[in-house]
Structure formats: structure tokens, C-alpha cells
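Morning F.,

Quick status update on the modeling queue. The single chain you submitted on Monday has been processed. Sequence for confirmation:
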Amino acid sequence: MDVLIVLGVMILLAILVAVKVKPAYALIGVSIVVGFGLQMPWRALAEAIFLGFWSTLVSIGFVLLTGAWLGKLVEVSGATSIITRTLVRAFGESRVEWAVMLTGFLVGIPLFYNAGFVILIPLVFSISATLQIPVLRVGIPMAASLSVTHGFLPPHPAPTSIASIFQADLFTTLVYGLVIALPAAIVAGPLLARVLSGLAGPSPSTLSIPVEARQGSPATSFLVALLPVLIMTIGALVEWINWAEEWGRAFSWIGKPEVALTTSCIVAYGYSLRMGKSRHELMAGLKSATASIFSILAVILAGGVFKQVLVESGVADLVALRVGMLSLSPLVLAWLMAALIRVSVGSATVAALTAAGLVQSVAMTGSVPAELMVLAIGAGSLMFSHVNDTGFWMFKEYFNLTLRQTFLSWTLMETIVSLLGLLGVLALNKIL
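C-alpha cells below.
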């Protein structure tokens, strides 16, 4: 009955958005409806709403803001134009989506999805505006590459945490994850983008992208734009080798997304001044970036509230326990549990960690490699992202898509990544 209530609320949410109710208002409204529908005490519901809002704000609010600042500074300095011309020259206009996919993949390995998204979004719109091509032709490869790294590759939170729960080797998990992630990114990225490129043409962005030529070094431009990636990679490596000295702890702290992005903003500000930009122009750009990010952040925070109400109501555990009664391969069972929780709750990380706790005993039996169990859950946690996922709304708002267009692009892309991830895990299990 609880699952039916949640499904009904999902349909209600889709209807509200379809009739032009602002997504943030719709998400908060259905959060209250689902809470009372599942008979949550009003105090528990209020606490879930506050926790969902606050935890989402703390976890990604500052990252989104500093990422938007960095994107604006990189844009104003002319670095995005330089990077665009360099990539187009290297890959050619006919293969530019491959360049974006590879860039997103490299960025996504050490970088959280939200931070990587806001860092690369100016590049996506710059390429679309410069080459006059549909924005989804470059947007989908970028999002696909970031998504696969988020779901399959350490040091991202979910695969790293699950590897610890299952006592899986982190390096082996990373190697297997790369084997699965690259083909999934190719199919759900450049190949899918070619099919869906006409779904939405070049559209207004929250970030205005200059297309005129600018002077500057390509190497320096790439360094400024991708500096947070470099900093966080160093931090991740330090944590991986478990360097316990004071310098090691310092590098680990510097590698945190918030610190890395703040440092990168300072460097980008200095680079912009060096490129001849005035302080007045830079402050105006930062003000514009701050204003633009608040409308997107409101939707994401509301999505976090909706997710938290579903988690606190116990729906995720209920779904997983019912699926656990089925007789399936451990890998398929792990994927299915994570997938159903993902569809019910929305958060990939919550889905992954909840499924991991429920199948931990199966993973520890050694019937299948623990590393593959980690990746099976990671693949399931990406399945069919829809209106209860903050990533769904971020993609929709940034690319100015309708609800239908978002389902046909973002949701389809995530589903392809999830299914290909499962097939990759099963194939590796046969080979190993």
C-alpha cells in the first residue's frame, strides 16, 4: 500500500509540473502529501522536511555556488572560448561530442557530479553557441560521462562506501569500473546524443557565453578551468595512500570540493585580471552567477526534501525487503534492489547504500567477486532517474527543457547507463 501511495504521488508531481506549477513548489507540496499519506506524525514530517532541506543545502549548496562562480570567471576570462576552439580543432566539428565526453570523464573521476556539472556547463553552451549545434548534442555526452564516474568509480562516495562495506579491493573496483564505465559513457553519451540532438535546439542558458575569439594560452585555460579537478585528484590520492603526516592531512583537506572550488575561484579571478578584465566587470559577473544559481538551487533543495520524506517514511527499506524475497543471481538481485530504491527515493547514493546493507550477507559469502557486487549496486542506483531526483531537475533547469524532453534525454540516458552497467557486470563475472 505504501508503494502505491508513493507511485500516486509521483504521478501527482508530474501533473503539477506539467500544468506549470513551479517545480520547487510542486516538490514541497507533494512531500507534505506523501508524508501524511504514509501516516507520518506531523513532528516527524517536519523534521524530515528540515533535514532534507538542510542536508541538501550543506552537501551541495556551496559547491553549486562556487562552481557557478568559477564557471562565470572562466567564461569572462575567455578560457571557455579558448578551450572550445582547442577541442574543436583537435577533434573536428563532426566529433566534438567525443571531446566533451572525454573531458567530462576526466573531470568526473575525482569530482562530485554536481561540481563537475556546474564547471563544465559553460563549456557545453560555449560549444553549442560557437558551432550553432543543438545543446543536447554536447550536453548529453557531458552528463553521461559524469554519471558513469559517479556511479562506478572510486573515490566517489557510493562506490567507495560500498567497497568498504563489502571489503572489496578499491583499486580492483576502480579497474573493473573503468572497464564498464567507458563503454556505457560512449553509448549513453555521443551515440545517444546523435539520436536525440534534435530534441532541443540551442536555448537560453543561465550563463551567457561569449563566442568572440580571445587571446590566451590553451594550456593555461585548461589549467584554470580544470584546476579543481587537479586539486581534488591530489587530495583523493593522498587519502588513498593513507598519508598520515601533517602534509598529508593538509592535502586531504585542500582536496575537499568546497576548498578546491574556492581556491580555483581565487586563481580564476587572478587569471581574469591578467587577461585584462576589470574588477567591476568581474564582480558584475559574479553577481549574475549568484542570482542565476538561486533558482536552480531552490528546485534542488525541494527535491532533497522530497527524497528525505521518502527515506524517513521507510519506503526504501520496504521495497528492498520485498525484492529480497525473490530468487535471483546475487548480482541481479543487488542491481534490482538498488534500482527499485532509486526509482522510489531518487537519490543514487541513498539507493546504493541501502541496497548494500541489505545484500551485505550475500556479498560476503564469496559466491561472486565483491568488486562486482559494488558495481552492480552502482549500476542499479542510476536506473530511471525521474522527478524525485535532484539530478533530473538540475538537467532540466540548466538546459531549459520541458518535462517530456527531460524524460526523453536525461532519464533515457541514465537508464541506458544502468542497463549497460548490469550487462557489463554480468559479462565480467563470466570472464573472471
